[in-house]
Amino acid sequence: xxxxxxxxxxLKVSELCLGTMGFGTEAGWGADAATSFAIMDAYANxxxxxxxxxxxxxxxxxxxxxxxxxxxxDRDYFVVATKYTLKDNITNxxxxxxxxxxxxxxxxxxxxxxxxxxxxxxxLHIWDDITPIDEVLRAMDDLxxxxxxxxxxxxxxxxxxxxKGNTLAELMGWSQxxxxxxxxxxxxxxxxxxxxPMAKHFGMTVTPWAPLAGGALTGKYLKGDKxxxxxxxxxxxxxxxxxTRVVMEVADELGVSESxxxxxxxxxxxxxxxxxxxxxxxxxxxxxxxxxxxxLSPEQIKKLDDxxxxxxxxxxxxxxxxxxxxxxxxxxxDRVEKR
Length: 339
What we know:
Blueprint: E1 3-5, E2 12-14, E3 17-19, H1 33-45, E4 50-52, H2 61-70, E5 79-84, H3 100-114, E6 119-124, H4 133-146, E7 149-155, H5 159-172, E8 177-181, H6 195-202, E9 205-206, H7 238-254, H8 258-266, E10 276-278, H9 282-289, H10 298-308, H11 316-319, H12 322-338
Parallel strand pairs: 3-4, 3-10, 4-5, 5-6, 6-7, 7-8, 8-9
Antiparallel strand pairs: 1-2
Helix pairs in contact: 1-9, 2-3, 4-5, 5-6, 7-8, 7-10
């Protein structure tokens, strides 16, 4: 794999991130420790170095498995990203949320489970709509100064909150968020309305979760395998089926798997993007790793774009109206260009 810089930093990470939410067998599914080790071995052997986990994945088991694995590896080779926010114990009312107290407590627990002295990237997992964003960034900056985390990042948060946070950080001399983790795929493009333009403005790398829409974009659900997806899910409706069939057509044209097409599409959209690829089987990961060798033509990208197009709403669609551009701005732009 090739390496990319993560946001406006000098941190080099592989072009596919390994999602480890399935490491552990709690809730009746997932990979046991031995299989998880084999998956990480295959990923590292392919040049992968970017691991994504969270304090709550498999009730902490994901972090524990990664910690056991790193004990036998070159720790500095790997870039470990974890998250805080969601409750991982029931001992106190501040065991969840974005507040400073929970952040400090959660990071200490993650460090123990990961058996490491530092976390490379710490994400705020999900916005709680309570904690001031300056409290979050000041606390993350303190952890960076203490050497317990190296970079700050954020996930599942409104664009205006992230924008306010990075602006405050720039003004105050705090470390800014360098990555934004959101749901993004051919079936879920609403992040294009505000979140992705905001990330582009601040030079943040987008790390999409569910880039394969829970497997829906591989076409397996059209073949009768509903898995754990609920029948009413937007991953199984008529729109999803239409988009998935176009993915299957493009895959046939290229002679590759549907997952390669869906993943490569997220990497071909004109902004910094490193999709998170989860796996509970080695063969599953090895197949997804082949994505880096796939290239989509402009015509194929347009075909996928057209099939999955969404309404941007206001003001996105308003900006795209040719009549508005012509009547309101056209003459002005003409005058500017002539000068």
